[in-house]
Design goal:
The protein is α/β, with parallel strands linked by helices and about 300 residues long. It folds into four domains: about 150 residues, Conserved hypothetical protein from pyrococcus furiosus pfu- 392566-001, ParB domain (Alpha-Beta Complex), CATH 3.90.1530.10; about 60 residues; about 30 residues; about 30 residues, no CATH class. The protein has 15 helices and seven strands. Helix 7 crosses helix 8. The protein is elongated. The chain starts with 5 loop residues before the first helix and ends with a helix.
Amino acid sequence: MPEPIKADWEESVIPIEKAGQRVMAGEIREIPMEKIIPPREDVRTWIPEEHIEALAASIAAVGLLHEPLVVQRGDYYEIISGNCRYLACKRLGWSTLRCRVVDANEYEVLFARLHENMFRADISPVEKAEFLKKVKDKFGLSDEDLARWMGKSRSWVTRTLGILEYPEDIKQALRDGVISAEVAYELAKITDEVARQRLLEYAVRDGATRRLAKIWREDWEREQRVLQALAGTITEEYVEQKREEFLSRAEVVAAKIRDEYAAAHMIPERSCDICGKKFREDALIALYVCPDCAHVIQNA
């Protein structure tokens, strides 16, 4: 699948100093597992079991390469990033976990978590958009504020948040990972549910690039413009003037349909073997007789 167009999706990275740079500094500590708590707000809404199992196997083989980031909450330590690593080590039966403890306020914690997870390929675009919206609403931020904190353009933030307005079938396909964000962006513009679901089925079954999805969307939009142009020429006044003609034409078509139906369901006729008169086949009586009796009847 070709790479998404940079001008549309990534755009320019804004070189600014982020609070996250200060948050990442901290002290390495060995913390008992029972003192570690999962994040209260996480980008992920669901973690596959197979992901934790694979990560546990990797850590068992090569060790913990990157310490989870935590912030102290009273006697406990809340995970900022590295929840999956924590779950994998817990599954391995570790009693303590080496973590980086940082001093950060709630605002900095959320943005550190946002930066940690926003650009991961294994988190769906819908989950990213939902978390971005949660941060935006919680602190009353504008798209420009989020863009500065993310080091991205405002249009990138706006488009990411726009995923939440997609039709549910498109969002579900994104959650399932069966289409890319670029394909979803094009298909979400198709407001006709039947047409959109048909094209979505093609994209899931056969695969689709953004270029192909754009061609589908442009074809649909062109078709809609033609239909609107045709609909605009048939006004109520025109219909009233042509009413009798329309009715006459409708009566002819209806009569033709009735005749065709009657012909298709007509029961054939045949002559009686005794008197020779014609009757419908379903009115005749079948007799089982031997050749001698049949000869007598015919000569009667």
